[in-house]
Amino acid sequence: MPSVDYFLTGQPDAARAALAAALQEHGFEVTTNPDGTWAVARGNATLTAFVGALAGRSKQRLVYAMHFFDHQGTLVARFFRESGAGVLGGAVGLARSNSVFTEVSEAVAARLQGQGLLGHLVRGA
Questions:
Q1: By the 8 A CB rule, do 65 and 39 touch?
Q2: What Cα–Cα distance (Å) separates residue 67 from each residue in 31, 40, 48, 57?
Q3: Could you tell me whether strands 3-8 and 118-124 are parallel, antiparallel, or unpaired per DSSP bridges?
Q4: Where are the beta strands (DSSP E) in 1-125?
Q5: DSSP state of 73
Q6: Quick one: DSSP state of residue 76?
Q7: Cβ 19 vs Cβ 105: under 8 Å
Q8: Residue range 74-95, pLDDT digits in tens
Q9: What is the largest CA-CA distance in the chain?
Q10: Contact 22, 4 (CB under 8 A)
């Protein structure tokens, strides 16, 4: 399951707002869960269920997540593809989900870096 840990600097609320804005720029809806984690999703589940990967890059239902934790006083945001994300689109959908994840995670990192909010990042498998 691919993941990226963003080690954020500066004011935590500003970093979270910039993170949400970067995801929204890529068409994702960011929903805060009661435990403080984020559900990050875009696309149409019904369309994806019926036509799979043929739903198209922007219409395929993609669901990712963002968890926050403290690492030695530094706010860390872990962005990851949940198990099964993209599976409705079959093998092509799963590959597209991974491709979109990489594209979005790099764009988010660039935005955070440009705003001086990214200390460093660590990519997971």
A1: yes
A2: 12, 11, 26, 25
A3: antiparallel
A4: 3-8, 29-32, 38-42, 62-71, 74-81, 118-124
A5: T
A6: E
A7: no
A8: 999 999 987 555 455 566 666 7
A9: 46
A10: no
Structure tokens at 101: 């994840």
- Alpha carbon distance 71, 46 (integer Å): 39
**What's the total number of domains in the chain?**
1
Q: Is the pTM of this model over 0.85?
A: no
**More reliable by pLDDT, 53 or 44:** 44
Q: Domain holding 13: CATH number?
A: 3.30.310.80
Range of the domain at 76: 3-124
Per-position b or e across 28-52, b if 16+ CB within 10 A of its CB: bebeeeeeeebebbbbeeebbeeeb
Summarize pLDDT for 46-83 with one digit per residue, the tens: 666 565 555 555 666 677 899 999 999 999 999 998 75
Residue that the structure tokens 């720029």 belong to: 25
**Mean confidence (pLDDT) of the chain:** 83
Distance of alpha carbon 103 from its chain centroid, rounded? 10
Residue 59 CB-half CA count within 13 A: 11
